[in-house]
Amino acid sequence: MSGDAQPSGGRGRGGGRGRGKGGRGGRGDTIPPNSTPSQKSGGGGGRGNRRNRSGRGASAVDKKAAAEQKQREEEAKAAAEAEQKRLVEIKRRQKLQAEYESSIQSAITSLESFSSAAKLHEDLRRQLDPQPLVAGEKSPLDQARESFEKSKKSLKSDLKKCTAFVKKIKSGSYHTPTELNSPNNPIVTLNLSRYVEEVAAAVAEPQAKVKQSDIPGIVMLCVEMHRRYETFSKALIPALLAGVSGNSGKSDEGECLPRRICIRLLVEFVLHGIITDMKPLVKAFKDAAGVPSEDGKDYAVTDANFIVTFSKAGGHEILGSVPRLVRLDCERLKKEISGEGEGKLANDESVQTTEEVTTETAFVPTLSSALVEKSRLAIELFNSAAPTSRAVPPKMTASLHAHCIGAYRTLTKSYVTTHRRLKKLEKRCEQDRLLQGNLSEAREKGLKDANSLMESLTKSVESLSEALDEDIPLLVEEEVVEEETDGKGIELWTKGEAGSERLGPFDDEETRSFYCDIPDFLSTKPHALLGISEADVEKQREKNKRQYGEDEEAEIVEMSSEVEDTLPMVEEEAEDEENEEGEDVVMEESKGEGAGEENKDTPHYKLMVLLEQELPEASRREKIDEIADRFCANHGSNKKSRKRLYETFFLVPRARLDLLPYYSRFAAIMDRVYSDSTLVTELEQQMHGQARFKKNQNIESRLRTARYIGELTKFRVAPPIVALRGIRRCLEDFSGYNIDVACCLLESCGRYLFRTKHTHKKIAELMDTMMRLKKARNLDERSIAMINSAFFMVNPPPQSSRPVKEVPPLEAYLRYLLASTLEADDKSVSFVSKQIQRLPWSDPSVDCGRLVCKYMLKACRKGRYKSTKAVASLVANLKRSKPEVPSRLIDAILEDIDWFLENPNFRDNQRTIVCARLFGELYCSGVLPSSIIFEQIDHIMNFQHDIPDALRDASQNEMFAPRGKVSQTIPEDEELEEDADDNEKKNLDPTAVPVSRFSKYDPRVPCDTDPPIAVFRIKLVCTILDAISSQVTVSNKSKIDLALASLQRYLFTKTSLPSDGKYVVFFLV
Q1: Residue 517: which residues within 8 A CB-CB, separation 6 or more?
Q2: 197-230 pLDDT, tens digit each
Q3: Following DSSP, what letter does each residue of 510-578 receive, concatenated?
């Protein structure tokens, strides 16, 4: 092949005279594209080199062009991504701008509505003013009524239309203010002079319920009627005042308006000019506010609803105070149009256009010129209406405002005090519920009334705060301060771990699940199958919610049609006492002895098998849940069966204490379905009854009862007060077996009560008393040890927390990659390899190679044993890009193995085994050559077994040569006779071991680091051979055979092998 096609090989001889780096140029073989740089470096001479240089120049130009093209593509891609981000930012800013404009428009609308209402009220008060504007002239109201009297003849007085109008008002159909101003409205077209009292009665006593939305229409109707008919207000206002004071004289409250509506109408009449005499309304207001007779005293508010309704309806025209929301809207609009608000004006130079938007600049909303003009007009209208519009004289306004403020102060004090009392009451009720199991009816009613009062006060205070523009007082949550006891060693339990809040008073998840995750048969079983009615189910759910603190409400599984057909009369049987005696018992008694096989199918026989055979063998959580399921499905509806079950629970053999947790779980399941269990009462009576008799006490029975109550307490079937009473009863006579019972109660449920919030204080006091009694009395060592054991089981001594070593972020990330993320699969290895290659390898201050090797070894030693294969695959993946990683790792492994061979220690055995395993996996991954592996195997077996020169010289002496015709071999048929004097033979001095003059090492040479009984080197060699066993090929088979022969020779030097050494060798073979 000619030289211009491909570069020539470095070692061939060619026709050119030039000499390349690798030797003389010439006709070398064509270098493949994937050849190494050293192979490509040796080119031929002469024209071959010139052509090579031209080819290299062309390839350099192509590479440069490709690099430029790639750079342009990356720039275009980056520009497209930036444009996409800019478009997203534009959409986000448009959304924020729309929200900003909507809020500004809402504020403008609020101010306009407020100002328009004030303007309307002022105009109507001027039109309905009964006082003349100029002396000697008629008032505007008299002029309007004279004008109406003149046009009365032209109006219709049709009986049918007038009656229909009155009925429409009485039925609650009111005209809107717009409809009332129309020329075809009945008030304008009809002559209602004969129906004025009927219209007033229809307004005051409607047949339908009046809503808040109907009040504007009612008020405008009354305004038009008052403008035309003088007797209308005289007939309506006394009825409304009677409704406010409660002296309406109506027996049925539905015949008159609600009190709140009456107050609102009276205030609206004042605002619209219908009412000019404020004395009756002011008197009612003072009575409701409880104005004190002397200055400086607090107001005694008797009717907060009256104060709230009056303040909200009166507003600034009566009280002189602008509502808070209106004031805030006005202030915001002022800031916005002055440029000090959230947005910027549209003519501001800093406002960005759409083309100038970037993701780096902050967004500032823009206030358009139209909104600026609307805001100015709304503020001008508000300023012209709010300060001057008053419906009452200024003196009365100041007086009413002062009374409102005084009533508000009283309500806020009551608000804060009620909140504090409510929290204390809730805490007390929660403690009583946990200690006694439930609350009394009086306590529950008191808690419910307190919550209702707090809700009412909250609404009143919030409404008054808005209307009077006052701040709401902050409700300070009182910190729960645990009272410290005077006991020694008693410490308040605090949650130390992050997951302890979820575990509650239990130490681990398994224990918490056993005592808390109870099957809910009320939600998973048909109620007819359980033999309970829907009313009983609701009562049971309420009881479960109070007792267990859980929401037992769940979707009830509907019973299938088959169950409905087979059990149609279950509920009737549950209600009938005679039927509950059990048909199965009657059938059992009526049948004779000859029907034994048939009796096995009866419910009674199945119940006996369940209680007497299966239940005592239930020693697993799944088994006891299964038995409970079967009992509830087959026998739960029978009261006699449940009674027999509770008797079985109560009569647990005193020697079978292992059954108590499972029986207690069964009892907890039944207690959540049926409420007729007497187990806790009987156990408590038995415990106190056994404590009365000091002679002939059965300690095993007392301990069983105490432990049983403790288990039921942890299941929350027995209230905590039962266990606390038992401990207190034992402490009253703290001697003899009472010490055993008290310690048994503490060991069974003491830690649960100690770690529960509401029983911590009480159990701590009892434990403190017990420790004081221990010191005061002269107890034996057994009792003292029992008391100390129970005390420290409930409240173990604090353990010093192990300091957490803080590592730099780079090391923490490496530990995460190698110890947590790395798995023995290609995807994981590839991901971790890419992440490691991205480390700052070029930074000399960060020794990345050392850190990577360090955490690779840690991942194998302190992590999983199987991770050695993953680490070996990772090292093989990094071999080309980061060659220092395998070199450092191999050096570290060899150093660890050599260090152990020099300093053998049992503590480092597992660490060295991991290194040997990783050493073999590196060979399987292609990181190590076979020569290093087998050299290391020989090194492990021969380390410090060097043959000394003296032994080699002694081996060549004649003492080891055969003498005469005596052969050193023993024929197979010749039996060796035992020496008569074995003791003398054992005490002989050791003789020299014959060695080969060609050997450098011999395992028979004694060594301090490898005595004859040491077998750990065998384990190291077997571990390496086991790791490389999957890579046996023709090329290394002979080396493996030699290694096995050397291992066999090494094994013969050991006097005996322990079992673990034998198993290692057997598994290898």
Answers
A1: none
A2: 888 888 888 877 888 888 888 888 888 888 888 8
A3: HHHHHHH----HHHHS-HHHHT--HHHHHHHHHHHHHHH-S----PPPPPPHHHHHH-TTHHHHHH-TT
Q: What is the largest CA-CA distance in the chain?
A: 173
DSSP letter string, 310-346: HHHHHHHHHT----HHHHHHHHHHHHHHHT-SSSEET
Q: How far is 911 from 860, CA to CA, in rounded Å? A: 9
Give the three-state DSSP class for 300. Answer: coil
Written as one letter, the residue type at 754 is: F
Contact 493, 341 (CB under 8 A): no
Give me 364's structure tokens: 């500032």
Contact between 403 and 364 (Cβ < 8 Å): no
Three-class SS of residue 99? helix
The DSSP result for 638-650, as a single string, is: -HHHHHHHHHHHH
* pLDDT tens per residue across span 153-211: 888 888 888 888 888 888 877 777 777 777 777 888 888 888 888 888 888 888 778 88
H or E element, residue 319: none
Residue whose entry in the numeric block shows the structure tokens 């003899």 = 736
* C-alpha dist (Å) from residue 762 to 443, 688, 728, 750, 767: 22, 20, 10, 11, 9
Higher-pLDDT residue of 743 and 986 is: 743
> Contact, 638 vs 580, CB < 8 A?
yes
Q: How far apart are CA 537 and CA 543, in angstroms?
A: 10
**Closest C-alpha to 916, from 930, 904, 933, 902:** 933
Kind plus residue range of the DSSP H or E element containing 159: helix 159-170
Distance, first Cα to last Cα, the chain: 55
To the question of pTM greater than 0.70 for the whole model, the response is no
Q: Are 743 and 773 in contact (CB under 8 A)?
A: no
Structure tokens at 994: 């014959």
CA 769, distance to chain mean position in Å, is 39
Q: What is the dihedral of CA 523, 529, 535, 537, to 10 degrees?
A: -30
Round to whole Å and give the CA distance between 764 and 762: 5
Burial class of 357 by CB neighbour count within 10 A (0 to 12, 13 to 18, 19+): middle
Q: Which long-range contacts (CB under 8 A, 24 or more apart) does 351-360 make?
A: 354/90, 357/86, 357/89, 357/90, 357/93, 358/86, 358/89, 359/85, 359/86, 359/89
CA angle 1031/1033/1039 to nearest 5° reads 95
Hey, what are 854's tokens?
């360090």
Residue 505: HSE in the Cβ half-sphere, 13 Å Cα cutoff: 21
Quick check: helix, strand or coil at residue 335? helix
**Structure tokens given for 891:** 């050096």
Give helix 867-877 / helix 884-902 axis angle, nearest 10°: 140
Which letter does DSSP use for residue 907 in this model? Answer: G
- Asked if 732 and 769 touch (Cβ cutoff 8 Å), the reply is no
Q: Which two tokens stand for residue 856?
A: 């690779």
Judged by DSSP in three states, 478 sits in coil
Contact call for residues 921 and 871 (beta carbons, < 8 A): yes
Q: What is the Cα 51 distance to its own chain's centre?
A: 73
Q: Is 1056 helix (H, G, I), strand (E, B) or coil?
A: coil
- Tokens at residue 374, please? 């609307």
* Gap between the Cα atoms of 706 and 695, Å rounded: 19
| Distance, CA of 175 to CA of 185 (rounded, Å) | 9
Q: Is the dihedral of CA 758, 760, 765, 766 positive or negative?
A: positive
8 A C-beta contact, residue 760 and residue 493: yes
| pLDDT bucket at 248, cuts 50 / 70 / 90 | low
Q: Identify the CA nearest to 945 among candidates 893, 900, 892, 995.
A: 995
What does the block give as tokens for 275? 């009412």
| pLDDT score of 789 more than 90 | yes
Q: Which helix (H) or strand (E) holds 23?
A: strand 23-24
Total residues found in the chain within this entry: 1069
234-248, 929-943, 1054-1068: least confidently modelled range: 1054-1068
